[in-house]
Amino acid sequence: MVEYKGKEVILMACSSCNIKKCEHCYISYEGDRKPEELKKIASSLADNYEVYINGAEVLVNKEYFDSYKIVNQNWMLTNGFEIYRNPAILDYLKEKGIEIVEMSYHFGIQDKISKINNAMLEKNIEYLKAKGMRFKLLVTISTENYNMIDQMCEKAISLGAYGIEFTNFLNQGNARNMDSSNLLNLEQISEFFDQLLAVRKKYSKDQLIIDRSGLFGRNQNNSSCHFNCPAGRDMVVVTPDNNVYSCLFLAKPGLEIGKLVDGKILLNDYIDNDGSLCLAQEMCNN
Fold it and tell me: Cα separation of 114 and 267, whole Å?
C-alpha cells in the first residue's frame, strides 16, 4: 500500500439523517463516528491535507462541530430540517465558527424527492438572514428541471442567496430505486451547459456565484472548459468505518481504494484517473 499524497480529504462524520433519506439520496455507506473520534482524526489529518467535514446530515449531532474548528471550516451542508425545527441552533453554529450554510433546495422537484418542502426552506432562509449568515442553494438537476436554470438563478437572487450550485442527478444510493428517466442524456447535458454559460454572462458574481458539480463531466460545448476530476488523485473520501474511496459519490462498499490506519491514509494504489472524465458519472449514469 502507498500513502496518499494528494491535497484534499473529505471526512464523513455519519450516514445518519434526521429525516427518512430523500428519494434521490446518493449516500451508500453506513456508520456514525463518535464526536471525539472525529476530532482525533480531523486533528491528525489537518497537518498534511485540506480536510473538509460532511454528513450525510451533520446536524444529527451538534458535537461534530467541534471538529469544524479544528480544520478551519466555516461552512456546512444540510438538508435544512433541523434549522426549521430548531432555529436557535443557528446561534450554536455561529459560536462554532459557521458563517455559511449550504442548503438543499431542489427547484421544480423538491416535493418529489425530499421530505422538506419549499415553504420550510424559505422559512429557514428568513432565520439565516436574521442571524446575518450567508447561504448557498444546492440544486439537484434531473430531466424535470434541467431547462429551468435561468429561473432558478432569478429565484436564488430574490431569496438573497450568495450562490447556487447545480448537481447532476446520480443513479446511486436511494436514487437507484427511482425511474431512470430522471437521468440526463448527452443532449440534455449539452443544453444544461448552454444555459449555464448564459446565466454566468447574465449575472455577475456580485449578484450570484453560479457553480456546478463535477457530476456533469466536461463541457463539450466549451473548448476552454477547465474541468478536472480530482477523484483518487487529489481528493479522497474517508467514511466512518475508515475505508477510503475516490469520491463521495462512489463511497460504496466494494469500491474502496484504501484504508485509514493509525492516522495515515493508505491506498491500494493510485487510481488511474487523468481528470478528463467524472468517474462517478461514468460509473453510475452511463
Answer: 35
